[in-house]
Fold Glycosyltransferase.
Amino acid sequence: MEGTVRGASRGKKVHVVAIPYPAQGHIVPLMQLCLKITANEGYMVTFVNTEHNHARMLQSQDGQGLEAGVGLEGISEKNIRLVGIPGGLRPELHGDPAYVVAAFESSEKLQAPLEELLDMMKQNGEPATCIISDVLVSWTQVCADKMRIPRIAFWTSSAAVYHVIWHMYTLFKQGEQNIKVHNVEFDCTGGMVSRIPGLPAMDVNDLPIIVRSGPADFIHKFLCRQLEHMMRAVAMAVNTFDELEHECLQALSSSFPVRTYAVGPLLPDDGSQRSHDNGGLTSLMRPGAIQECLQAKSTRALTNRRIGIFHEDYSCLEWLENKPPRSVMYISFGSICPMNEQQFVELVMGLQASGHRFLWSIRPDFVQGCKDYRTLLPASFLECVKERGMLVSWVPQLKVLGHPAIGGFLTHCGWNSTLESVAMGVPMLCWPDVGERRTNGRLAVTVWRVGLDFSNARKQAVGGVELIRREEVRRVIGLLMDSSCESAKYVRRNAASLRIAAQRALATTGSSVRDWNLFINYIPSPSSCVAKAQKLRK
C-alpha cells in the first residue's frame, strides 16, 4: 500500500478517511470537500485512492508533488495524506461501455484492502474517527460499522439525479415494477415521466439508468446494493446549492431519511482566498483574476491547480489572452466520455464550418477504437486549428471558464462541468450521452434555461448509427456565439443570474455556508477525540 505508513505523528486530531469512487469526476469534488474540512484546525484526512489513481494523482502535479504539497507525506499545510490501495479498474476504462460492469464490480472489491488499511492505521496509533465516502462506494458503511465510527456519504452529482434514483429505488422496494406516465402504466422504455416530486415532466431517456432498467439488470442491482447501506449514514453532503435546486432538495428532504446538506459549489482554490468563499471561487470570479494568475511569479501559484489524476496544460490561458471577449467556444467531453468515429468526424466538420474560434480539451483516446484522435483529423481542420483554434489534452477548466474570451461551453453535461459553468456564468451547448448527464443537460436547457441543445429532429441515422450532423453542429454553435441572437441573449442573462446566485450561496450568510456549518457538526470535533483518547488511557 503506497503512502500508508510514512509520515510523522499527527497528534490528537480528528482523522477523517475519505474514499472516492475511483474516477476523476468523483475524486476531484471529494478532494475539494476534504480541503475545506482541513481548513479547520484539528482535522486531518487520509485520502484513499486505488494504487493506479494514486500514482496518476502524483504524476499530474508535474513532478512537483513535494513542492506543491502533494506526495506520500500528504499535503502538509492542509493536513491531507494521499494513499493508494490495491485493486480497481484503470480510470480510462470507466467510460468504455464494454467495461461498465467490470468498473462497478472492481470498486466493490476494494473493501478488503480498505479494511486492511484501516487496521494498519489503528495499529500505528492513527485510528480513523470518521469515514466520508462516495455514495457509489457505500459498502464503506460496513467498514464504518465494524469500527463503530460514523460514516458520511458524499454525492458528486446533482441533487436531482440522486432524488430520481432514490425515488425509483423506493418504488422498486415497494414492489412496483412500472411507473405511470400521464395516467398510463408504462414500463420505462420511452415517453414522459411526470410523477417524480420536485422535478418537471421529463423524457424517460433523460433520466438515470435505474429508471430504464429492471431488477435483473447489473447496474440496477449495483445501485440498490449501495442504497441499502445509505440509510445507516449519519448525513449526506451534495455538491450543489439551494438556489440552483431548491424544489428538488425540498422533495429529497421529505423522502430520504438521512439529513442532506447542499454545500456546493465545491470548486478548486485559486490560492488567493480561503475560508468561507469556498476555495477562492469569489476571487476567481473577479475581473483580472486570470491575468494575475498568468503573471504570478511564484511556482506555487502556477501549480496550485485542481488535484486530480490528469495533468493540466496552462498554455491555453496564454492562447486565450489576445482573443476578444466572448469569442471562443470552449469544448470538453470530460474525463471518460467516449465518441464513435462517425460522430467525431461530424463534430469536427461542423466546428470547422461554424467559423468561430474554439478551445477543445480532448483526450488522445477520446474516439472509440482509436488510440490517437489526431490521426482522424482532415488537413482542412488542421489548417482551421492554426487559424482560430487550439487542441489540448486537459485544461484548468475553472480558470478557462472564468476567462473573458470564453463565449460558450460545449459540454457532455457531467456534473462537475455543469456546476463550474453555472458558477462562472457561462452558457452551455448541451451534448449529453447517457445516464445522469442526460438529466443534467435537460435541467440546464428546460429548467435553469442556461443552455441550448441539439435538436433531436435533426439527428440522422448513418450506417445504422444515429448522429448529430455537421450542419446541426454549425447551426447551434452559430446560435450561441451570435451576440444578436435572442436565444443566445436569453441564456446569457440566465447564466449571469445563476452566477450571482452561486456567489450569494457562498457568502458568509449564504445557503451553502449555512448548510456547511450544520454539516461539519457530523464530523467528530477535535475536543471529543481528545476526550476519548484520555478516557482510553485511564
Remarks:
- The chain has a mean pLDDT of 83.
- The CA atoms of residues 96 and 338 lie 7 Å apart.
